[in-house]
Amino acid sequence: MSQDLSRRRILQLAIAPALLAGARGQAQDLSPTASRVFPGTDGKLVYVPDAQGNTLLDSSHAGYGGGGVPIPAVAVKETLWPVAGDNTEAIQAAIDKVSSLPLDGNGIRGAVLLRAGYYRMATPLRIQASGVVLRGEGMGDTGTVLVGTGTGRAPAPAGAPPGGGGPGGGGQPTLIRIAGASGAAAKEDTRQTIVGEYVPVGARSLTLSSARGFKPGDAVTVRRIGNQAWIDAVGMNTDAPGGRWRPFNVEWDRVVTDVRGNTITIDAPITCAIEARWGGGDVARYEDGGRIEKVGVENLRAVSEFDPAVRTGAYGNMDRPNYVAEEYYADENHFTNFVTSTTRRTAGCATRRRCTSSTAWSARSAERSGLPCRTACRASRSPAGWGHGGSRSRCAVSSRSSSAATPTRGATRS
Prior knowledge:
Strands 10, 11, 13, 14, 15, 16 and 18 form a 7-stranded antiparallel beta sheet that branches. The chain is of the alpha/beta class and 414 residues long. The protein is globular, with a radius of gyration of 26 Å. Strand 25 (398-401) and strand 26 (408-409) form a beta hairpin. It has 3 helices and 26 strands. The protein folds into 2 domains: 71-183 and 289-414, no CATH class; 185-286, Beta Barrel (Elongation Factor Tu (Ef-tu), domain 3). Mean pLDDT is 75; it is low at 161-171 and 346-414. The longest helix is centred in the first third of the chain and has 28 residues, at 2-29.
C-alpha cells in the first residue's frame, strides 16, 4: 500500500512543472492592469491619476473636524421622558433651553437626552444654535423612537425650506431640521475665474486669474459652472420624464491652505472635473455669520405614520416611465425625512451609532425605505457632518402605518 502511495506521489511531482507552465501561459494572456489606489509605506492610500489627472476620490477629509478628530463627549443638560399625546413642544423647549446656554471652550453647549420610549410628534423639531446635541438611548424597538404622526400632508411648495407647513397644506417632510439663521454669502468682489481647460477630479490646487485677494485660512466657495452645452452632451435634453435638465452649478465649501503665485491649495479635493468648454469655474471668499456648527443627532430612531390605503404598482422613472410591477405603499404625504441640515458647517446627522447623513434618499414606503437622514447642504464640504461616511455609522430609520401597533423596519440602513 505504501509503495502505491509513493508511486502516486512521484507522478504528482512529475507533472507539477507542466501544470505550472500552463498556468503561467494563461496569466501571460491576461491584459495588463494598473491599480489606481494602493496602500503606501506610511499606511496611507496612494492615488494614481489617469491620463487627464483624475484620481479616485480621497474621502479621508470627511468626518467630524475634517477626519481623524475625536467626536466630542457632550454632557447632558436636559433629560426628558415620553408622555401621552404629542411630545414636540416639550422636546423643543428642552432644545431651546440648551441652545440658550453659553458655549464652552470647545464650542459646545450640551445635550438633550431623550430616555427610551416612543415620542409622538405632530410637528418638526428645530436646532438653530451651535453646540447642541439631541441624544437617545438606542435605535432598537426598546430604545428612543420618534414617531412622526399625521397623514394627508400636502407636498411642500417648490422652494420652501424643509420642515414647514402643516397637515392639509404646506407639507412637513422633515422631522428634525438643523439650520442656522442664514447661509454663507459670497463676497462677489473677490470672485476669480479658474484658468485652464481642465481641472481634474480630486484636484486640490486651482490656478486663478489672480490669487492676490486670498490667503491661508480663507473660507471659500469653489464653483463648477454647468452650461447648456454640457446638458446637451450628456443627453439630458430629451422630452422624456426627468430627461430635461437645466444648467446648474456645483459648489464646494473649502478652506485655503496655501497660496503660491496665482495658485491656491484647498483643504479637500473637488469631486467633479471643471472644464472650460462646459462653463469653467471660479472661486470666491464668503461671509459666514449665520451658519451653525457642532450639532449632533445621535443614538435614536425615527418612524413616520403613513396611509396604508394609498398604494400603486407604478414604478415610473426616466429609464422605464411606464413600468408597472408589484403593488406597494405609495403615500408620500407624511414625514419623509428624519434630519435635514442646512446653513451649517460641521453639523450633521451623527456618528458611532448615530445616523449617517445622505443626500439622495427619499421615502417611498415602509418596505422600500423610511425616514432618511438627509443633508441639504450647498456642497460636499468636509467636514460634512459628525461621522459622515464613517464605517461605524448606522442609519436605522423606517416608516409605519398609522394603524400599525409597531414600526415596520425600512430598508435604508447603512
